[in-house]
Amino acid sequence: MAEGEERRLQIEDVGDKGDGIARVGPGYVVFVSDTEISQQPLVRITTVRENFAFAEVLKQQRACPPSSVIAASERVGGEYLEGAGRVRVAPRARFSLENVTALRR
Fold it and tell me: pTM for this one?
């Protein structure tokens, strides 16, 4: 990995300071600010160290919807909708992400 390198990463976790964490090979992580778990941003590596690096987002790619929401949508014949920080299945179903999660318990 080199400074200035551009690559798409999978954000797998969030660090203590809120940066997204992408694992690249065994024991090597890249910290990316302004990202969330499951996003796959195109980034530019800005700082490289022995076992970690920092990167900036060049282009953000939307996260995939949770599979449980898609499965619920397919079961009831609705469609997947996303908006205002809420995920729901519509038009004939009245599921929210919280309800689907509760169903899985």
Answer: 0.59
